Amino acid sequence: MEPLSEKSADSGVGQEIVKNLALLEGEDEYLMELATKLAQPVQVQSQSSETTSMDLSDSLVEELAQRLEKMQPSAQPSVAQPAQPTVAQPVPQPAELPPEPEVDLHVKMHEMISSMDETVQELYTRISDLEKLRAPQEFTEYCVFEPPPGYQELERYWIHKPFVWAAILYSPERNERMYYLVEPALTVGEKTALEILYQNLLERITYDPRIKDRDRLLEAKVNEILREYGIVMTKKSIQKLLYYLKRNYIGYGRIDGLIRDPNIEDISCDGWNVPIFVYSRKYQSLRTNIIFTDQNELDLFVIRLVERAGKQITLAKPTVDAALPEGYRLQATLGSEVTTRGSSFSIRKFAEEPFTPIDLLAYGTFSSEMLAYLWLATENKKNIMVIGGTASGKTSTLNALSMFIWPDAKIVSIEDTRELALYQENWIPSVTRPAPGDRAIDMYDLLRQALRQRPEVIIVGEVRGKEALTLFQAMSTGHTCYGTMHAGSIQEMVHRLEGEPINVPHHMLAALDIVCLQLLTYFRDQRVRRNQSVVEIVGIDPATGALRTNRVFERNPLTDEFERVGESHVLREIAKERGWSALELEQELTRRRQVLEYLHRNNIRRLNEVASVFRQYYYEPEKVMEQIASGKLRV
Ligand SMILES: Nc1ncnc2c1ncn2[C@@H]1O[C@H](COP(=O)(O)OP(=O)(O)O)[C@@H](O)[C@H]1O
Ligand SMILES: [Mg+2]
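Above: inputs. Below: predicted complex with adenosine-5'-diphosphate.
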C-alpha cells in the first residue's frame, strides 16, 4: 500500500479546484462541496503510527466510503460504518490490532484512495472544460470576432493583452490560410468620441522630450476633452479609445499589431485594395484582414512611415529605402507611377544576422584552411577584394572576413545601404545619400571624407565608380582596404578597373594582395555559394608589364572540395615581416585552423560569440589554444 502521506498533494489540488469552481458560481453544488472538503487539511496518523499530514477530512472519507459501499453492496459488508477509527484517532501499534480488522483497514483505505483519485480526475476534466469556456471570454472582453464564412480557426494568440490578438484561420475549400488581426470593437458612440479626440488632441499635445510618461499625459488629456464635451463613458470604453489613440499616435497605426507580433518577419502592402501580406515564422506567407481601400489613406500612411524612418518620399522621388527606428528595413513607393497598384511598402522586421567565418565554414563556402589563411592575411594588413556575380554572397563574405580585422583597428566603412555589421568598436559606418543635384553624397565623397579621418582600414561595400581609383590610391598609401566588386573573373575585374569610367592605372592594381572569387553554383542539384578560387596579385611582370597572379586555393567542382594549388607569396611575405620560420608559419596557420574548426564543431557561430574568441586570440593566443585543448573555451 502506498504511504498515505503521498496523497497530501491533494490539498493543493483541492484548493485549485475550489478556486476554479468559484468562477462557476453554483454550477454544480455537489462538486463544489466535495472540492471544499478536499481543500481542508487534517492531521491524521498513518499505519506505521508516524504522524503524517493527511489532507482528507474525515467526513469526506466517510462519504467516499459510503459511496463505495453503495456501489458494491455485497463485496465488502464489513466496511459498513468503518471510517471513524481510521482517521479520527491515532491508530494503535499494529501488534495490538486484531489481524482481521487490519486487513480490512488496508483494503478499505486503498479503495477510498482510488475512489478519490477518480473524483479528482473527474474534477480535473470539468475544470479543463470550464477553462475552455472561460478563455474566449478573455479574448472577447474588448474584441468581437467571427471568422469569415468558410474559415476555421487554427490558432489564436495574444499580441497585446487584452486589446489585440491574432487568429490563424484556414479555409479547407480554398486550401488557404489567413492571418486575422483582432482589435477592440467600437460602438457608434465610441467612434464619435474617438473622432472628437482626434480633432482636439493634436493641438493640445505638444511634443516635449522632458515628458517621460506619455501614456499618463495622453490619458489626462483624453479625460479633460471628454469632460469638456460632456461625454460620459465607462472605464472600459475609455480604455478602448486610449488603445486606438496610442496605436495611431505612438504606434504604427493599422499595422501596429503586425509590427508587435513577434511571429511575423515581413509585412508587405502591394497597393490599395490589395490585402496586406505577412510572412509568419510558422505559417509562411499569409494574407491578412488588413486592407487599405482608400488610395489617399494609403498614400498618407506611406508618407508618415517614411518620415518615421527619417526620410522623405515625394512624387518626384517616389522610392525610398530606409530604416525604421527599431532597425527594421523599410522599402516604400509613392503613387502609381512606379508601382501600378498604388503606393506600396514592405517592412523587413528581422535583419538577418551577419555572416561570420564560422557560417561560411558551416555552409561549405570556404575550407578551414582557406579561412585560416585569410585570417592571417587580414591581421597582417593585406588588401582583399571579393568578386563574383549578383547574390553570390560577396557582401556576406566581406562581412565575415571583416571579423578577422584586429580588434582595435580604426575602421571606416562605406556603403549604399547599411549591410555590414562589425564587432570592432572603433568603427565609423557611413552610407551614401542619393539626392538630386549637388545634395547627393556618393561613395567618392564619403571615401575622401573617410581618408581625412585617418583610418587604418577602409571597407567599401561595392566598388563600381570613380571611388575605385581613390580606393587604390588609399591602398598604395598604406591603408588596408577591403571591398566587393561585381565581376565573374579576375580578368573581368582588371578590365573594369582599368577601363572607363574607373581608370585605375595598371601599376596601381599591384597594391591589391588577394582576390576571392565567389560563385553561386550547383552541387548535386543543390544551389550552393562557394569560393571558386583565392588568387594573389603578385606584382607587375617587369618584362611584359602584365599583372602577375598566383592561384593558391581552388575548388574542385566534382568533389566540392578545396585544394591548395600553389605556394603563397602573401604567406611568405608575412613570415618575412614577422620573422617566422617556415615551420612557425605553418604552426600559426594550423592553430588558427584549429580555432575555426573548434568553433564550428561546437556550433559557436553568432557574431558576438565568434568576435569574443577572435579578440581573445589576438591578445592571448596561447590561452585560447589551452582552452581549446581542454575543451573549455570561454565565449
Ligand atoms: N556563403 C553563403 N552560404 C549561404 N548563403 C549565403 C552565403 N552568402 C550569402 N548568402 C545568402 O545569399 C544572399 C545574397 O548574399 P549577399 O552577400 O548579399 O550577395 P551579394 O553581395 O553577392 O549580392 C543573402 O540572402 C545571403 O543570406
Ligand atoms: Mg552585395
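Residues 238 and 383 are 63 Å apart (CA to CA).
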